[in-house]
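Q: Convert this sequence to structure tokens.
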Amino acid sequence: MKISFWLNGVYRHEEVEPDKLLLDFLREKGCPSVKRGCETANCGLCTVLMDDKPVLSCSVLAVRADGRKIVTMEGMQKEAQEFGSFLANEGAEQCGFCNPGFIMNVFAMLKENKNPSEEEIKEYLAGNLCRCSGFVSQTRSILKFLKYKKAQEGEGQE
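A:
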């Protein structure tokens, strides 16, 4: 099947098999940040943004990308690097394998809720599994990142 879609801001026309998973399709198109984890839609490692909403690419067919805007970590390197420094500073990225899916979900959350409470953060990110760092340091990194972003916005208003 032929599909047309935006991948990280670039409009593309591609041929895709009807049963190909979005995860496999994106990796073939040069997006190694899209990770294969549980393959049961439970770990969040394969999260990408489809029209600004997080989707688990291990449970979505690639043909669903037709006419959509798909963003992977490769399409938001600046934002990911900025937030990634907060993860590192809080010890929340020991192996880093879960970081791409986690970061994609953090930015999806912030598009929906610019000022989430700690409880809302935990609820929104409950589907992201991390086997080595735990969620306390991840939550702390998000809260510090939000504080930093608010301070930046305050400076820009003066």
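The chain has a mean pLDDT of 89.
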